[in-house]
Amino acid sequence: MRVIRYLFAFACLALGAIVGALNRQPVSIDLGFAHLPTNLGIALLVALLIGVLAGGLAISASLVLPLRRRLARAERQQTAPETRSGN
């Protein structure tokens, strides 16, 4: 399983390097308060990374956190009757 993860990570790195190498045109990104001169390939990869991180945060906020709260509530309800019956 670990070998498959390493192969997948290497394939993603190789794909990123290929995209970066094929898109060497200079671009300037205007952030409103600053201009960032960079290559198109780097800009594409950074935009993709930001999108993946934003999607992960959205899924975490909408699914993972409510499920953790529900699990903690269920664990509290399960342990509360056991401590009362022991008294």
UniProtKB/TrEMBL annotation:
It comes from the Bacteria. Keywords: Cell membrane, Membrane, Transmembrane, Transmembrane helix. The keyword Cell membrane applies. The chain crosses the membrane at residues 40-67. GO terms for cellular component: plasma membrane. Residues 23-78 form the Lipopolysaccharide assembly protein A domain. Pfam families: LapA_dom (PF06305). This is Lipopolysaccharide assembly protein A domain-containing protein. It comes from Lysobacter spongiicola DSM 21749.
